[in-house]
Amino acid sequence: MANRWQKYYSGYGESAGLDIDAEYPVMFGSRTGFDLLVYPPKVSAPRALVATVSVQRAAGPLSAAEIKQFRHGRKACNGLTHQGRLATLSIRNGVKPEDLNTLLEDFTQFLQQAGFENVCQTCGAAGATEGCFAGGRYLHLCPNCLAGMQQQAAKPAKPENPVAGAVGALIGSLAGAVCII
To answer: 88: which DSSP letter?
Structure first.
C-alpha cells in the first residue's frame, strides 16, 4: 500500500465494501442508492471517522426527533447532523470494521426510509455523485459540477503585470513620504 492510511483503512474498506483513495485518507462507495464518503475529520486523528452523504427530500432536513430515533441504541454512532444538503454521521473512535459496516447500512436505509434521495451538494441535482477534495473539504458533486470545477481549476492564473506593480509601489512610497513630511 502506498500510504499509511491505506494500510490502516484496508480492514474497514473491505468489511464495509468501500474503496480507499490513493491520495487522500478517504473511503468511498455506494450503499442503498446513496454515495458515501467516510474519512477522518482530522488527518492527525485517523481513528475518528465521519460518513457524509448529500441528500434532500421534499419534507426538508432531518428533525431532532428523527436524529434521536436513529441514534438510539447505536453505540458506534457518535452523532448525526444535517446541514443544507449534507448529512454527516459521526462515528465513535476505534469502531470495529464490522460495526462500521452495520452502521453505514443502517444509516443509508434510514435515509431511504425517511424519503431522502442522493443529490449533488452544489446544485441539488438528483442522481449519482462523485466525491472530490476541493478547498480543503470533501464534496459530493454531480458530473456537471465536477466538470465545471475541473475546468475552473485547469484555467491558468491571471498573469501579474510587473510594470503596474512597480508603478503602484512607487506611488505608495511617494504618498508615504508626503505624509511624513
So the answer is: E
Is 148 in a helix, a strand, or coil?
A: helix
Strands 49-56, 117-118: parallel, antiparallel or unpaired by DSSP?
antiparallel
pLDDT, tens digit, 9 for 90 and up, residues 95-154: 888 888 899 999 999 999 999 999 999 898 899 888 888 877 888 998 898 888 878 777
Contact between 16 and 37 (Cβ < 8 Å): no
In the numeric block, which cell numbers belong to residue 170?
Answer: 512607487
Ordered DSSP codes for 11-77: HHHHHHT-EE-SSSS-EEEEETTEEEEEE-SSTT-TT-EEEEEEEE-TT-SPPHHHHHHHHTT-TTE
Give 160: exposed, middle or buried? Use CB within 10 Å, 0-12, 13-18, 19+: exposed
Looking at the DSSP bridge assignments, the partners of residue 37 are: 28, 52
pTM of the model: 0.78
Q: Distance (Å, rounded) from C-alpha 35 to C-alpha 37?
A: 7
| Distinct helix (H) and strand (E) counts, the chain | 5, 9
The CA distances from residue 135 to 132, 138, 139, 149, 153, in Å, are 10, 8, 9, 11, 11
The residue to which cell 464495509 is assigned: 16
